[in-house]
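Let's practice the habit of predicting before peeking. Look at the sequence and jot down your guess about where helices and strands might fall. Then scroll down.
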Amino acid sequence: MIDYGIAFPYYRLHVVPAVVALASPTWQREVWLDPDRPENLDYTVHVLFDDFCEADNPSRWLGQSLRTVEEAELMAHLGAAYGAVQDSVGADADDDVYLDSPLWPAVVAAAARLAQVLVTNDHTALSKLHDAGHRWPPGTEQKAPGDVTQQQERP
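Done guessing? Here is the structure:
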């Protein structure tokens, strides 16, 4: 697997939670169907199809907001699953109509698989940064192997 990196990490910060929301039927019902909450299906769709990725044709986002070919392929699968629901219920249907569609479980399943890959890839990249000596918060020193003392901040 080649990690092409993320040219736009801010975009990734929108893409991952949107995919996670699509993977969670409980979240969808509790948040999207609550008129007092700002997040809904329309917001999520704009994130994934218009603003930070093109879920129906994500390959050009490789290295931009998607790390790997697998992520792009899974995003395309998610885009196709969502498109099938949209074709079935109509683009202007209310969120509850989408969620009640017999095709909606395919969207949830595709999002769940993609979410797992997105998070795993981000954790792998973070682990590699840590192994290369990058620490958070900045200015903290790495402890020597076997050192049980607290990390010291640099002046």
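How did you do? Confidence is low (pLDDT under 50) at residues 151-155.
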